[in-house]
Amino acid sequence: MLWGRRSSRFLLGLGGLAVLSMLMTWIVLGRTPQARRGRLVPAWDRGTSAPRPADRAEAPAEAQDFKVQRDIQNYTIQSVCSREGMPRSPYNLEAWEQKTLFRHIIVNDKYKFLYCYIPKVACSNWKKVIKVLDGKIENVEKRVKMDHRKDLVFLSDLPPDEVKSRLESYYKFMFVRDPMQRLLSAYRDKFANKAIVDFPLRYGRDIIRKYRANAPENVNGTDMTFSEFVHYLSDTDPREMNEHWQPFTKLCQPCSIQYDFIGTQQNLEADANHVLRAVGAPPSVRFPQRQAYYKPTNKNILRQYLSEVPPQLLKDLIPKYSMDFMMFAYPIPELDTI
Predict the structure, then answer these.
(1) Local structure of residue 224 (DSSP, 8 states)
(2) How far apart are CA 1 and CA 5, in angstroms?
(3) Could you tell me the pLDDT band of residue 162, with boundaries at 50, 70 and 90?
(4) Max CA-CA distance within the chain?
(5) Do residues 66 and 317 lie in contact, with contact meaning Cβ atoms separated by under 8 Å?
(6) What phi and psi values does residue 14 have, to the nearest 5 degrees?
(7) What is the pLDDT of residues 100-131, one digit of tens each?
(8) Distance between CA 7 and CA 3 in Å, rounded?
(9) Residue 36 has pLDDT above 90, yes or no
(10) SS3 (DSSP) at 153
(11) How far apart are CA 263 and CA 277, in angstroms?
(12) What is the mean pLDDT of residues 44-73?
């Protein structure tokens, strides 16, 4: 059974987009035995085989809102993954799903961890950190042109027995962010950024020709609008999507992999440094700080862009990323107030 069919059938059975937000609230507030005892479920107690890593550092000190958000995310992960038909192991996945997953898990044998990278969620900095840990780069602040494959080992590079042993014994982590902010970040970086030419040529030209009325034949793809991008995404099968906008639940399969830690973009520095402590990285290795010129995609910028997208396009788009929203309790855009 395909993940896309699972999520589509799940949504249809619930009545579609109109009840998606209600479902998320129900998942969070559901009266399970854990909830009745007045506690939410931590990541290492999600009903998976992953034990709490007692020999590792405690979770980073966070503001109360981050603690609440993390508890909600942990509980929704458990609730969604416990549903019938959801994958329990990477070996339960379809061939294309498993291939995608293993191609996105970076292996570090020196510190015995697996990192599932998601484009547009600080993955370039994580790859830089991993190269520093392996002695391929001097330090995390060194300005280098990032080669996203060189000097890195991926789970897909290893024979099956070595894949299995690492999945069973290594520390596993991933990072997520608001799905709509991630999509907008991909658009701004790959299409609105005039320094990038390959993505407009590979995708932008065809998108404009398909979705813009009276588009000229010699269009170069550099002026593709966010609405046109959203229209393209809503019409595209997730398995055919580029990794920069493919749903992150398909890239990292959090139901089939028992992650020890799932960090968030909104608490990036604290979560990243927690992971470094947990894997025993040298104290001198810290997660890179954001550069002064960095302009993040935030809620205000997202609202501005969403206001230019016809509501129907957003209604068509959101089910494609339903698992990203539900599993990590991210808010669905309020279409009637944009």
Answers:
(1) -
(2) 7
(3) very high
(4) 64
(5) no
(6) -95, 0
(7) 999 999 999 999 999 999 999 999 999 999 99
(8) 6
(9) no
(10) strand
(11) 14
(12) 52
Q: Which has the minimum average pLDDT: 2-16, 34-48, 102-116, 122-136?
A: 34-48
Measure CA 139 to chain center.
26
For residue 225, which of 120, 233, 319 has the smallest C-alpha distance?
A: 233
pLDDT at residue 246 in the model: 98
By the 10 Å C-beta count (0-12 exposed, 13-18 middle, 19+ buried), 325 is classed as buried
Are the C-beta atoms of 186 and 246 separated by less than 8 Å?
no
CA angle 234, 235, 237 (to 5 degrees): 100
Q: Which residue has the tokens 């479920």?
A: 41
Side-chain-side CA neighbours of residue 325 (13 Å): 22
Residues 6+ apart with CB under 8 A from 62: 70, 267, 270
Contacts of 319 (CB under 8 A, 6+ apart): 7, 8, 11, 16, 17
In which residue are the tokens 């992150």 written?
Answer: 248
Query: DSSP string spanning 50-118?
Result: PPP-TTSPPPPP--HHHHHHHHHHHHHHHHHHTSTT--SSGGGS-HHHHHHHHHTEEEETTTTEEEE--
Give dist(CA 327, CA 81) in Å, integer: 8
Q: Where are the beta strands (DSSP E) in the chain?
A: 105-108, 113-116, 153-154, 171-176, 261-264
pLDDT for 299-318, tens place per residue? 889 999 999 999 999 999 99
Task: State the pLDDT at residue 94.
Answer: 95
Share of the chain above pLDDT 70, in %: 76
- pLDDT for 69 beyond 90: no
Phi, psi of 175 (to 5 degrees): -130, 140
Q: Which residue has the tokens 């589509």?
A: 8
The predicted model scores a pTM of 0.81
